[in-house]
UniProtKB/TrEMBL annotation:
Gene3D superfamilies: Vaccinia Virus protein VP39 (3.40.50.150). It comes from Streptomyces thermospinosisporus. PANTHER family: METHYLTRANSFERASE, N6-ADENOSINE-METHYLTRANSFERASE TMT1A. This is Class I SAM-dependent methyltransferase. InterPro entries: Methyltransf_25, Methyltransf_Superfamily, SAM-dependent_MTases_sf. Keywords: Methyltransferase, Transferase. It holds the Pfam family Methyltransf_25. One of its GO terms (molecular function) is methyltransferase activity. Residues 60-153 form the Methyltransferase domain. One of its GO terms (biological process) is methylation.
Length: 243
């Protein structure tokens, strides 16, 4: 994170004391050099799984950031791809970097909780964005996603298995969340970024409550833990066909 290409400690401090939107506007030019960007291995594994499900017509990358996930959609969608994010700075970087063969790409500045689309998409993906939504906001977010999907459309995103209690990863994530909660208790505007993995049970309930049929699909590229459970799963939430 503190490499010459990434943000300095001072820059990160300024960003962390901003709002989420302003923080990402500031971080955008160096975002792809931070650990916050979704790794290519996750993007490639998701694309491979989607290729087996597809092809799709139109796709939306929700909270697209600098556009890493748009390349996934370009590989599996035939008609048009849209990226939506509320950070103008992140979208500016995406406009410079989104290239390659595939369908045309639109980039739209929008809040994921109030999307400016009708039911126009066959596929919605999202990578690494849900830590920016409080649990109380997720039902509204998932309802918005359902509203922009055509009947039979899918909402797909990868989720890593929760860190085991007592593991170094567990304590790191717990400490990060604790720092963010203290920061938000004493400083305004709030900066919502909590990276502890969402429990699968809660995800199922919230997506089902928004009207999706939900299944969890292991991503075999990442193997399994000692107890045999997948290290990374793909959440596949389908909007049922209208009757």
């Amino acid at each position: 994170m503190f490499s010459p290409e990434g943000p300095s400690l001072r820059e990160l401090a300024v960003q962390a004391l901003s709002s989420v939107q302003r923080g990402y506007d500031l971080l955008a030019p160096k975002f792809d050099a931070t650990p916050f960007r979704t790794p290519d291995a996750v993007l490639d594994a998701t694309a491979s799984a989607l290729q087996r499900m597809g092809p799709f017509g139109t796709g939306l990358d929700l909270c697209c950031g600098t556009g890493a996930g748009i390349g996934v959609l370009q590989r599996v969608c035939r008609e048009r791809v849209t990226g939506a994010d509320f950070s103008a700075g992140m979208l500016a970087v995406a406009r410079r970097r989104v290239r390659g063969a595939g369908p045309p790409v639109d980039l739209v500045r929008a809040d994921a909780r109030a999307l400016p689309f009708g039911p126009a998409f066959d596929l919605v993906v999202s990578f690494g964005a849900f830590g920016h939504f409080l649990p109380s906001e997720r039902p509204r977010l998932f309802a918005q996603v359902r509203s922009v999907l055509r009947p039979g459309g899918r909402f797909v995103f990868p989720v890593a298995a929760p860190a085991r209690p007592g593991s170094p990863e567990y304590w790191m994530l717990l400490g990060f969340d604790a720092v963010m909660r203290v920061r938000n208790a004493v400083w305004r505007p709030p900066f919502v970024m909590y990276y502890r993995t969402m429990p699968f049970g809660a995800l199922r309930r919230e997506l089902s409550g928004a009207g999706f049929r939900v299944r969890l699909q292991p991503l075999p590229e990442f193997g399994r833990r000692a107890d045999g459970s997948p290290r990374v799963r793909l959440v596949v939430a389908t909007r049922p066909q209208d009757r």
